[in-house]
Amino acid sequence: MIQVQGLHKSFGNLKVLKGIDLEVQKGEVVSVIGGSGSGKSTLLYCINAIEKIQKGKILVDGIDAHDKKTDKNKLRQKLGMVFQQWNSFPHLTVLENVTLAPRVVLGQTTKQAEDLAKQYLDHVGLGDKYDEYPTRMSGGQQQRLAIARTLAMKPSYMLLDEVTSALDPELVGEVLDTLRLLRKEGMTMICVTHEMAFAKEVSDRIAFVEKGIIEEIGDAHQVIENPANEKTQRFLSKVL
Amino acid sequence: MGLSLFTPLSWNDTGFILTGVLNTLYISIVAIFLGSVLGMVVGFIRSISKQSFNLFMGAFLDILRTVPLIIQLVLFSTYVGVIGWPLNPFTCGSIILSLYTMAFMSEVFRAGFESVSDSMRIASRSLGMGYWQTIRYIVLPIGMRTVFPSWIGVSLSVVKDSALVSVIGYMELLRTSDQLITRTQQPLEILLGVGLFYFIISYPLSFFGRHMERKMAI
Amino acid sequence: MGDYQFHWIIVYQALPQMLKGTFVTLHVSLLSMFLGIIIAVFLSLGKMSETRILNIIPNIWIEIARNTPALFQIYMAYFGLGAFGIHLSPYVSVLSALVFINAGYLAETFRGGFQSIPSTQLIASRSLGMTRIKAYRYVVLPQMFRRVYHPMTNQFVWSILMSSLGILVGMGELSGETQRLQSLSFRTLEFFMVAAVLYYVVTKSVLLCSELISKKIFTGDI
User: Fold this and answer.
1) What is the value of ipTM here, to two decimals?
2) Is the residue at C211 inside a domain?
3) Could you tell me the domains of chain A?
4) Counting C-beta atoms within 10 Å of the first and last residue's C-beta, which end of chain A has fewer, N or C?
5) Closest to A153 (Cβ–Cβ): which among C129, C219, C221?
């Protein structure tokens, strides 16, 4: 379970998150929607302890993510993160991209890591690209590679940061398909996304964030089709 | 106190040093000017010419770039002496330093010309401009702007490399200071002064060049 | 060509000595690169440091190296240090001058290479649970190495060419040796032509090797 309690985060004088409370149960998919600059991506970076926080608490399976005594590297192994700009490692082949962390972090042998990596690459539909270099692939393929790279660390949770926003429209579908697959397998996910239809389809719950505050959170269908909050209505009327 | 062969540095030496300073500036400016003009022509020809011709010209430029300047200077001044057509150190040094500069400048300008994309050329041709008009109004101004930082870089290295022309007897700054050192036996003071001169010439320009580079990167 | 008669036999007889000079040239430039790289790493780290005091020495070093001629550096080492009672041999003078300049230029190369790696690469590595050291070791530094490889090769070629200044302080590298040999026979043209060919062959071979090595170790594009 991921618990975010009274989270405040600011960059210098700029307050980005102003008291976020959120609980995500094991097996649940929660989407976070909201305009750009609303702070929704920052929320993911805070959960992953990539960004420091000013106030509040984040517990991942009961472990305080921002406690000095917490082993952040151990924590991040639990939290797989996929980025908007996929961030594949350009100097490594597709296979090496996936095997790197299991080898150097988990201490797997090359053989072990490769077997596992091939499994995940096949899973996301990159079974024929093992020896290709990421820069020669499309954005959609690179994003699926990033998902496989994250899955190879066997995370308990996936944090997805606008994973389709930087993709050409015709490539969005293949990445969403991969996420649907993860959903079916019961992966716990927090998705920051612009894809309202997709959010409605795969999420259990949807949270609408504006100006660093969760204005509305509830059942996915209810929030999209029948938002209670006026601000949510205004936002949805603009994007739908 | 015994009689000494050496006399300390005095104000009378200022004029001597100044000659060296001016000679260094003089030959540098000549070489940068000629090298840039020739380099621009060669760079332009290389950017539009066929592979085979490029290979031939590249090989010649390669020799200028991969044989140390000092060897080129000695070879050339000996050669003109041997064929009975001796040149004074300045002429001799200017010719070699200009060719040497051209070899580097041609690459700079070639990159500049090639940086102007085909679509931009096509756009200007579509406006009814002719080939040379396109070169004159589009390719040159844009290309020159992009090469400016590298041009400063090469020019500064020419100022520094001009010190080597001393080897064929040109009285540039380092050679005059070398002679002063022999007479005064005060190498440190003289060399520090010389170093300061180069630094004062070079630092502001290189700073400016890097500033331009940053500005254009954005 | 007038009535000049080429006498190649003298050069041919002196070829072993010239090759020995070539070896010294390679030796001094390789060593100057090796030491220059080590110092450059520290200079670039100092320059990138947020502690102001650590920026001072790298800044002074880099600017002097970039803005004064190599010949000046060599004279400083050979004549200038005499004022402090330090008398360096021609070899050490040329070596230290080359090390000084290489370190200055490479420091900037390293800094540029390092800063050209997007910070997102580090973030992505850390998000996979890598420690900072592992992220640098496996992700950031290998990419940086690719970007500084060609500038490093160019710096090496530059060192080879600039070591020819050894001629002015009587060092026994290729140019100095050529100078000594021609002064015995006054066949200046022949000796320096052969020296030019040797320099050409050496630098071209270095560039070729560097290209082959880069093809071998740098797979994928960046």
Assistant:
1) 0.89
2) yes
3) 27-38+77-239 (3.40.50.300)
4) C
5) C129
